[in-house]
Amino acid sequence: MNRVVDLRSDTVTRPTAAMRRAMAEAEVGDDVFGDDPTVQALQEETARILGKEAALYVPSGTMGNEVAIAAQTERGDEVICEATAHVFLYEGGGPALLSGVQIYPLAGERGLFTCAAMRGAVRAPDSHHPITRLLCLENTHNRAGGRVLPFAAVQELTSDARRLGLRTHLDGARLWNAALASGKPESEWAALFDTVSVCFSKGLGAPVGSAVAGTREWIARAHHYRKRFGGGMRQAGIIAAGALHALRHHRARLTEDHARARKLAEGLSALPGLQVNPADVDTNIVVVGVTRESPARWRDFVAERGVRVVPFGSDAFRLVTHLDVDDAGIACALAAFREASKELAGR
Ligand SMILES: Cc1ncc(COP(=O)(O)O)c(C=O)c1O
Question: 171 alpha carbon to ligand 1 midpoint, in Å?
Fold first, then answer.
Protein backbone atom coordinates (compact mmCIF):
# COMPACT_ATOMS: atom_id res chain seq x y z
CA MET A 1 0.00 0.00 0.00
CA ASN A 2 1.26 3.50 -0.79
CA ARG A 3 1.95 5.57 2.29
CA VAL A 4 -0.15 8.62 3.09
CA VAL A 5 1.59 11.61 4.59
CA ASP A 6 -1.13 13.60 6.29
CA LEU A 7 0.07 17.16 6.89
CA ARG A 8 -3.37 18.75 7.15
CA SER A 9 -3.19 19.23 10.91
CA ASP A 10 -1.53 17.95 14.07
CA THR A 11 -4.97 16.71 15.11
CA VAL A 12 -4.89 13.74 12.70
CA THR A 13 -2.62 11.54 14.83
CA ARG A 14 -3.71 8.06 15.88
CA PRO A 15 -3.07 6.94 19.48
CA THR A 16 0.13 4.93 19.89
CA ALA A 17 0.05 1.35 21.19
CA ALA A 18 1.30 2.51 24.62
CA MET A 19 -1.36 5.22 24.71
CA ARG A 20 -4.09 2.74 23.83
CA ARG A 21 -2.84 0.46 26.60
CA ALA A 22 -2.96 3.31 29.12
CA MET A 23 -6.50 4.08 27.98
CA ALA A 24 -7.62 0.46 28.21
CA GLU A 25 -6.23 0.16 31.72
CA ALA A 26 -7.46 3.52 33.03
CA GLU A 27 -9.18 3.62 36.36
CA VAL A 28 -12.47 5.46 35.86
CA GLY A 29 -15.49 6.83 37.70
CA ASP A 30 -18.32 9.25 36.98
CA ASP A 31 -16.57 12.57 36.44
CA VAL A 32 -19.78 14.59 36.68
CA PHE A 33 -19.88 13.37 40.30
CA GLY A 34 -16.15 14.18 40.55
CA ASP A 35 -15.35 10.48 40.88
CA ASP A 36 -12.93 9.86 38.03
CA PRO A 37 -9.37 9.50 39.39
CA THR A 38 -7.75 9.62 35.95
CA VAL A 39 -9.45 12.89 35.04
CA GLN A 40 -8.40 14.27 38.40
CA ALA A 41 -4.79 13.18 37.88
CA LEU A 42 -4.77 14.84 34.44
CA GLN A 43 -6.23 18.07 35.83
CA GLU A 44 -3.71 18.15 38.68
CA GLU A 45 -0.75 17.49 36.41
CA THR A 46 -1.91 20.13 33.92
CA ALA A 47 -2.38 22.71 36.68
CA ARG A 48 1.09 21.89 38.02
CA ILE A 49 2.78 22.27 34.62
CA LEU A 50 0.96 25.56 34.02
CA GLY A 51 1.64 26.82 37.55
CA LYS A 52 -2.08 27.44 38.14
CA GLU A 53 -4.25 26.53 41.15
CA ALA A 54 -6.68 24.39 39.16
CA ALA A 55 -7.43 22.92 35.74
CA LEU A 56 -10.54 21.47 34.13
CA TYR A 57 -10.66 18.75 31.44
CA VAL A 58 -12.91 19.74 28.51
CA PRO A 59 -13.80 17.92 25.28
CA SER A 60 -12.11 20.38 22.89
CA GLY A 61 -9.93 23.45 22.54
CA THR A 62 -12.99 25.37 21.42
CA MET A 63 -14.80 24.49 24.62
CA GLY A 64 -11.73 25.47 26.66
CA ASN A 65 -11.78 28.95 25.12
CA GLU A 66 -15.54 29.27 25.32
CA VAL A 67 -15.88 28.32 29.00
CA ALA A 68 -12.99 30.69 29.86
CA ILE A 69 -14.70 33.54 27.99
CA ALA A 70 -18.04 32.75 29.63
CA ALA A 71 -16.44 32.59 33.08
CA GLN A 72 -14.69 35.92 32.71
CA THR A 73 -17.34 38.10 31.02
CA GLU A 74 -20.90 39.42 31.33
CA ARG A 75 -23.42 39.66 28.50
CA GLY A 76 -22.82 42.77 26.37
CA ASP A 77 -19.10 42.91 27.18
CA GLU A 78 -16.39 43.23 24.57
CA VAL A 79 -13.41 40.92 24.12
CA ILE A 80 -10.30 42.18 22.32
CA CYS A 81 -8.42 39.64 20.24
CA GLU A 82 -6.16 39.74 17.21
CA ALA A 83 -8.16 39.79 13.95
CA THR A 84 -7.04 36.31 12.81
CA ALA A 85 -7.42 34.61 16.19
CA HIS A 86 -9.05 31.19 16.40
CA VAL A 87 -11.72 32.48 18.83
CA PHE A 88 -12.78 35.05 16.27
CA LEU A 89 -12.46 33.11 13.00
CA TYR A 90 -13.07 29.48 13.81
CA GLU A 91 -15.35 29.00 16.81
CA GLY A 92 -18.65 29.43 15.00
CA GLY A 93 -19.47 32.76 16.63
CA GLY A 94 -19.31 30.95 19.99
CA PRO A 95 -18.49 34.05 22.08
CA ALA A 96 -21.64 35.80 20.78
CA LEU A 97 -23.82 32.71 20.96
CA LEU A 98 -22.70 31.28 24.28
CA SER A 99 -21.55 34.31 26.28
CA GLY A 100 -23.44 37.18 24.62
CA VAL A 101 -20.20 39.13 24.12
CA GLN A 102 -18.88 40.85 21.04
CA ILE A 103 -15.37 40.48 19.73
CA TYR A 104 -13.21 43.45 18.85
CA PRO A 105 -10.94 41.93 16.17
CA LEU A 106 -7.88 44.16 16.31
CA ALA A 107 -5.56 44.08 13.28
CA GLY A 108 -2.13 42.78 14.17
CA GLU A 109 1.08 41.80 12.50
CA ARG A 110 1.82 38.09 12.49
CA GLY A 111 -0.71 37.45 15.24
CA LEU A 112 0.00 40.32 17.60
CA PHE A 113 -0.85 44.00 17.96
CA THR A 114 0.93 46.75 19.87
CA CYS A 115 0.08 48.12 23.32
CA ALA A 116 -0.83 51.42 21.70
CA ALA A 117 -3.31 49.66 19.40
CA MET A 118 -4.82 47.78 22.35
CA ARG A 119 -5.14 50.96 24.40
CA GLY A 120 -6.88 52.58 21.44
CA ALA A 121 -9.40 49.73 21.35
CA VAL A 122 -10.33 49.84 25.04
CA ARG A 123 -13.63 51.67 25.42
CA ALA A 124 -13.98 54.74 27.62
CA PRO A 125 -16.74 54.41 30.23
CA ASP A 126 -19.86 55.69 28.46
CA SER A 127 -23.39 54.33 28.36
CA HIS A 128 -23.08 54.10 24.55
CA HIS A 129 -20.12 51.73 24.75
CA PRO A 130 -19.76 48.08 25.58
CA ILE A 131 -17.48 47.34 28.53
CA THR A 132 -14.08 46.09 27.39
CA ARG A 133 -13.62 43.13 29.73
CA LEU A 134 -11.14 40.65 28.35
CA LEU A 135 -7.95 40.46 26.31
CA CYS A 136 -7.52 37.15 24.53
CA LEU A 137 -4.20 36.19 22.88
CA GLU A 138 -3.16 33.03 21.00
CA ASN A 139 0.24 31.29 21.32
CA THR A 140 1.47 29.68 19.19
CA HIS A 141 -0.56 31.56 16.61
CA ASN A 142 -2.18 29.29 14.06
CA ARG A 143 -2.94 31.79 11.27
CA ALA A 144 0.46 33.37 11.77
CA GLY A 145 2.01 30.01 10.82
CA GLY A 146 2.64 28.64 14.31
CA ARG A 147 4.48 31.76 15.38
CA VAL A 148 5.70 32.00 18.95
CA LEU A 149 4.66 35.45 20.17
CA PRO A 150 7.59 37.46 21.57
CA PHE A 151 7.53 36.95 25.36
CA ALA A 152 8.42 40.56 26.23
CA ALA A 153 5.62 41.90 24.03
CA VAL A 154 3.07 39.56 25.62
CA GLN A 155 4.31 40.56 29.06
CA GLU A 156 3.88 44.23 28.22
CA LEU A 157 0.41 43.72 26.71
CA THR A 158 -0.93 41.67 29.59
CA SER A 159 0.39 44.00 32.28
CA ASP A 160 -1.00 46.98 30.39
CA ALA A 161 -4.33 45.16 30.06
CA ARG A 162 -4.37 44.51 33.80
CA ARG A 163 -3.65 48.20 34.51
CA LEU A 164 -6.62 49.06 32.29
CA GLY A 165 -8.84 46.73 34.33
CA LEU A 166 -9.06 43.95 31.73
CA ARG A 167 -8.98 40.25 32.43
CA THR A 168 -6.78 38.04 30.26
CA HIS A 169 -7.11 34.66 28.55
CA LEU A 170 -4.53 32.75 26.52
CA ASP A 171 -5.61 30.36 23.78
CA GLY A 172 -2.67 28.05 24.33
CA ALA A 173 -3.85 25.19 22.12
CA ARG A 174 -0.16 24.81 21.16
CA LEU A 175 1.45 26.36 24.23
CA TRP A 176 3.57 23.18 24.53
CA ASN A 177 5.20 24.06 21.20
CA ALA A 178 5.67 27.71 22.22
CA ALA A 179 7.34 26.69 25.47
CA LEU A 180 9.88 24.42 23.76
CA ALA A 181 10.62 26.84 20.93
CA SER A 182 11.02 29.85 23.24
CA GLY A 183 12.88 28.07 26.02
CA LYS A 184 10.35 29.55 28.46
CA PRO A 185 8.33 26.93 30.34
CA GLU A 186 4.55 26.85 30.02
CA SER A 187 4.21 28.20 33.57
CA GLU A 188 6.04 31.43 32.70
CA TRP A 189 3.69 32.09 29.81
CA ALA A 190 0.64 31.05 31.85
CA ALA A 191 1.62 33.38 34.72
CA LEU A 192 0.86 36.33 32.44
CA PHE A 193 -2.82 35.34 32.08
CA ASP A 194 -5.85 34.80 34.33
CA THR A 195 -6.93 31.72 32.36
CA VAL A 196 -5.15 29.50 29.82
CA SER A 197 -6.51 26.79 27.55
CA VAL A 198 -4.27 23.98 26.26
CA CYS A 199 -4.94 21.05 23.91
CA PHE A 200 -3.85 17.45 24.32
CA SER A 201 -5.24 16.41 20.93
CA LYS A 202 -2.87 18.44 18.73
CA GLY A 203 0.90 17.99 18.77
CA LEU A 204 0.80 15.81 21.88
CA GLY A 205 -1.18 13.23 19.95
CA ALA A 206 -4.02 12.38 22.35
CA PRO A 207 -7.29 11.35 20.70
CA VAL A 208 -9.53 13.76 22.62
CA GLY A 209 -9.45 16.69 24.95
CA SER A 210 -8.16 20.00 26.18
CA ALA A 211 -8.00 21.79 29.51
CA VAL A 212 -8.51 25.25 30.90
CA ALA A 213 -6.51 26.42 33.90
CA GLY A 214 -6.58 29.36 36.30
CA THR A 215 -7.38 30.22 39.89
CA ARG A 216 -9.74 27.91 41.79
CA GLU A 217 -12.40 30.58 41.48
CA TRP A 218 -12.16 30.97 37.68
CA ILE A 219 -12.10 27.23 37.22
CA ALA A 220 -15.16 26.75 39.43
CA ARG A 221 -17.01 29.18 37.16
CA ALA A 222 -15.64 27.45 34.05
CA HIS A 223 -16.84 24.11 35.49
CA HIS A 224 -20.37 25.46 35.74
CA TYR A 225 -20.23 26.61 32.09
CA ARG A 226 -18.76 23.28 30.96
CA LYS A 227 -21.89 21.60 32.32
CA ARG A 228 -24.19 24.22 30.77
CA PHE A 229 -22.49 23.81 27.38
CA GLY A 230 -22.96 20.04 27.54
CA GLY A 231 -19.33 19.21 28.24
CA GLY A 232 -19.81 17.19 31.45
CA MET A 233 -18.52 13.70 30.65
CA ARG A 234 -19.00 10.51 32.67
CA GLN A 235 -16.24 7.82 32.55
CA ALA A 236 -13.98 10.34 30.86
CA GLY A 237 -10.91 8.71 32.42
CA ILE A 238 -10.73 6.50 29.31
CA ILE A 239 -9.87 9.51 27.14
CA ALA A 240 -8.13 11.46 29.90
CA ALA A 241 -5.69 8.54 30.20
CA GLY A 242 -4.67 9.14 26.58
CA ALA A 243 -4.16 12.83 27.34
CA LEU A 244 -2.16 12.06 30.49
CA HIS A 245 0.04 9.64 28.56
CA ALA A 246 0.56 12.29 25.87
CA LEU A 247 1.44 14.92 28.45
CA ARG A 248 4.00 12.67 30.11
CA HIS A 249 5.59 11.13 27.02
CA HIS A 250 5.09 13.38 24.00
CA ARG A 251 5.92 16.89 25.14
CA ALA A 252 9.69 16.86 24.76
CA ARG A 253 9.54 15.26 21.30
CA LEU A 254 7.75 18.28 19.82
CA THR A 255 11.21 19.64 18.95
CA GLU A 256 11.37 16.86 16.31
CA ASP A 257 8.20 18.25 14.72
CA HIS A 258 9.71 21.73 14.71
CA ALA A 259 12.90 20.51 12.99
CA ARG A 260 10.86 18.63 10.36
CA ALA A 261 8.67 21.67 9.70
CA ARG A 262 11.81 23.74 9.12
CA LYS A 263 13.14 21.09 6.76
CA LEU A 264 9.88 21.09 4.82
CA ALA A 265 9.96 24.89 4.56
CA GLU A 266 13.57 24.83 3.35
CA GLY A 267 12.74 22.31 0.64
CA LEU A 268 9.58 24.11 -0.45
CA SER A 269 11.26 27.54 -0.50
CA ALA A 270 13.45 26.38 -3.41
CA LEU A 271 10.48 25.45 -5.61
CA PRO A 272 9.08 27.71 -8.35
CA GLY A 273 5.44 28.62 -7.75
CA LEU A 274 5.73 28.54 -3.96
CA GLN A 275 6.68 31.16 -1.43
CA VAL A 276 7.82 30.48 2.12
CA ASN A 277 10.54 31.84 4.34
CA PRO A 278 12.02 29.05 6.50
CA ALA A 279 13.09 31.65 9.06
CA ASP A 280 9.39 32.32 9.75
CA VAL A 281 8.83 28.71 10.86
CA ASP A 282 9.06 28.78 14.65
CA THR A 283 7.26 25.53 15.44
CA ASN A 284 5.30 22.80 13.62
CA ILE A 285 3.19 24.84 11.17
CA VAL A 286 4.29 25.87 7.68
CA VAL A 287 2.16 28.28 5.67
CA VAL A 288 3.13 28.32 2.01
CA GLY A 289 2.02 31.03 -0.42
CA VAL A 290 1.28 30.03 -4.01
CA THR A 291 2.27 32.34 -6.87
CA ARG A 292 0.96 30.07 -9.68
CA GLU A 293 -2.36 28.24 -9.78
CA SER A 294 -4.72 27.98 -6.80
CA PRO A 295 -3.94 26.33 -3.45
CA ALA A 296 -6.64 23.78 -4.27
CA ARG A 297 -4.77 22.74 -7.47
CA TRP A 298 -1.57 22.13 -5.49
CA ARG A 299 -3.52 20.26 -2.83
CA ASP A 300 -5.20 18.01 -5.41
CA PHE A 301 -1.93 17.35 -7.24
CA VAL A 302 -0.02 16.23 -4.16
CA ALA A 303 -3.06 14.35 -2.80
CA GLU A 304 -2.80 12.03 -5.83
CA ARG A 305 0.71 11.21 -4.58
CA GLY A 306 -0.47 10.49 -1.03
CA VAL A 307 0.39 13.87 0.51
CA ARG A 308 -2.41 15.76 2.23
CA VAL A 309 -2.39 19.52 2.91
CA VAL A 310 -5.16 22.12 3.39
CA PRO A 311 -5.72 25.41 1.55
CA PHE A 312 -5.27 28.31 3.97
CA GLY A 313 -7.06 31.37 2.61
CA SER A 314 -7.18 32.16 -1.10
CA ASP A 315 -3.43 32.13 -1.85
CA ALA A 316 -1.75 29.71 0.53
CA PHE A 317 -1.87 26.22 1.99
CA ARG A 318 -0.85 24.86 5.37
CA LEU A 319 1.30 21.90 6.37
CA VAL A 320 1.60 20.73 9.97
CA THR A 321 4.10 18.20 11.29
CA HIS A 322 3.20 15.84 14.12
CA LEU A 323 3.72 12.52 15.85
CA ASP A 324 2.77 10.46 12.78
CA VAL A 325 5.16 12.18 10.35
CA ASP A 326 8.76 10.94 10.25
CA ASP A 327 11.78 11.88 8.12
CA ALA A 328 10.65 9.55 5.33
CA GLY A 329 7.29 11.35 5.32
CA ILE A 330 9.02 14.69 4.87
CA ALA A 331 11.09 13.29 1.98
CA CYS A 332 7.94 11.89 0.39
CA ALA A 333 6.11 15.25 0.75
CA LEU A 334 9.02 17.16 -0.77
CA ALA A 335 9.18 14.75 -3.70
CA ALA A 336 5.46 15.25 -4.38
CA PHE A 337 5.84 19.04 -4.25
CA ARG A 338 8.86 18.93 -6.60
CA GLU A 339 6.70 17.14 -9.14
CA ALA A 340 3.84 19.56 -8.53
CA SER A 341 6.12 22.52 -9.05
CA LYS A 342 7.35 21.15 -12.41
CA GLU A 343 3.80 20.55 -13.55
CA LEU A 344 2.05 23.65 -12.14
CA ALA A 345 4.80 26.26 -12.22
CA GLY A 346 6.20 24.88 -15.47
CA ARG A 347 9.97 24.74 -15.08
C1 LIG B 1 -5.18 28.05 18.13
C2 LIG B 1 -6.33 27.11 18.27
N3 LIG B 1 -7.18 27.27 19.28
C4 LIG B 1 -8.23 26.46 19.47
C5 LIG B 1 -8.45 25.39 18.63
C6 LIG B 1 -9.67 24.54 18.84
O7 LIG B 1 -9.42 23.23 19.15
P8 LIG B 1 -10.53 22.09 18.90
O9 LIG B 1 -10.43 21.75 17.46
O10 LIG B 1 -10.10 20.99 19.82
O11 LIG B 1 -11.85 22.66 19.27
C12 LIG B 1 -7.59 25.17 17.55
C13 LIG B 1 -7.83 24.03 16.63
O14 LIG B 1 -7.23 23.85 15.63
C15 LIG B 1 -6.49 26.05 17.36
O16 LIG B 1 -5.65 25.90 16.33
Answer: 8
